[in-house]
Specification:
There is one protein chain. This protein is of the alpha/beta class. The chain folds into 2 domains: 23-52 and 294-391, Aspartate Aminotransferase, domain 1 (Alpha-Beta Complex); 58-292, Aspartate Aminotransferase, domain 2 (3-Layer(aba) Sandwich). 43% of the residues lie in helices and 16% in strands. The protein is built from 15 helices and 13 strands. β1 and β2 form a beta hairpin. α13 packs parallel to α15. The chain starts with a helix and ends in a 15-residue tail after the last helix. 50% of the residues are buried. The chain binds pyridoxal-5'-phosphate.
Length: 406
Amino acid sequence: MKPLEAELRRELGELAAGGALKRFREIASPQGPEVRFADGSEAICLCSNDYLGLAADPAVVEAAGRGLREHGAGTASVRFICGLFTPHLELERDLAGFLGAERALSYVSCWNANQALLDTLAGDRTWILSDELNHASIIDGIRLARPAGKAVYAHADPGALEAELGRVPPGHRCLVVTDGVFSMEGDLAPLPEIVELTEEHSATLIVDDSHGLGVLGPTGRGTAEHFGLTDRVDIVTGTLGKALGGAAGGFVAGDAALCELLEQRSRAQLFSNGLPPSVACGAREALRILRDDPGRLERLHANVARFRDGVAATGLRPLDGESAIVPIVVGETRDAIAMSDALLEQGVFAIGFGYPVVPEGTARVRVQLSAALSDAQIDRAVAAFAAVGESRGLLVAPDQPGSTAT
Ligand SMILES: Cc1ncc(COP(=O)(O)O)c(C=O)c1O
C-alpha cells in the first residue's frame, strides 16, 4: 500500500472506530415520499429537501427533458467564452421576478453562489459578520474571501450582532450574512431585528434562503416574505436543489449592478461551466408550479402540523419551529445513528446527525416534511417514531417539559 493510501485508510478506520462513518443508501427509485432502495426494501422518506414534492413531478421531468432535447447536455464552456442558453436567462428572469429583485444570476450550486458572492464583495476594506450556525458554504466562503475583518455572532442573537456591528471600523463595507432557515435547528433568523440593525449601520444584508424558498411566506417566497420584509433584504442566495425541483443549481438575487459585477468577476462564473440547460428548465418549471399552485405550500404546512402534532402526542419533543425541518434531539451521536437505524427497520428513512455537524451532546434525528407525503404515510411515520422512541426511553409525559428540547 502506498504511504498516502495507508494514511487515508488509517483516517477512515478512526472514523469507523468513533462511530462517525457515514453510510450511503443506494436508491433505485426517483426521489419521493416513499423510496425504494437497491436491495428492494422501501421506506417513507423524511430526509430529502424535496419540500414541495417536485423532484419527480411529471411536469418538471418533462421540462428538464425538453431542455435536454432542445439544447443538449450543456454549453461545454463558461458563460463569458461561449455564451449561455435561453433557458438560463429565462430562469434568471423568473427567479428575479419571483423574489422582487432586479436581477438573478445562476450558478451550478448554492455552494458556488455563496462563495462567489462573498469572495467578489470582500475587498481589503470589507467586514463580514456571520451567524455562528450558518451553512458550511458561507463559513468556507468567508475563509476564501479573506475580508479585512470578520466576526461570528451568537446564533440568532441580535444583541450579539449589534455588538459586532459597533466594532466595524468607519468607512468599511459591512456584509451581514445569515441563513434564513437554519438547516440543523429548523429555526428562522430573526430578520425583523437584523434588518433594523443592518439599516441603522448601513450594512448590506445577505440571506441564504435555501431552506426557506418554497416553504415560508404566504406564497413561498421565503423567510423575508414570512416576516413581510421582501423589499428590505439586500441580497438573497438560494438553491434549486431543494424545493425548486431538487436537481442542482443555485443563484444570487439582488441589484442589477451586483449581478453584473458577479458575472464579470466571480471566479465560479469565469472558470466554471453554467447550469446544464435541462436543470435550468426543470427548475423554471418548478418555480412556475410554486407560483401557480398554492395548494402545494398549503399541503406542506398541513403535513408539518400533522407530523408535529402526531409526535408530540406520542411524547416526543421536537425543537420548536415554523419551517419544514423538525429536529428531534436525542443526545449522543451514537444514539442518533441508532435511532435512525431503528426507524429504517420500521420503514422510515430519517437521518441522525451528530458531532461535528451539531454540537456535542445535541445529536438529533432530523425530519424534513414534504408536500408529497400523504396523511397515511405521515401517520405511519409517527407510529414508527412512537415505537422507536418508546424502546429507546425518549418519550415524556405530555405535561412534562421536553427532555429532548434544547
Ligand atoms: C443553507 C444552505 N445553503 C447552501 C446550501 C448548498 O446548496 P447546494 O446544494 O445548491 O450547493 C445548502 C445545502 O445543503 C444549505 O442548506
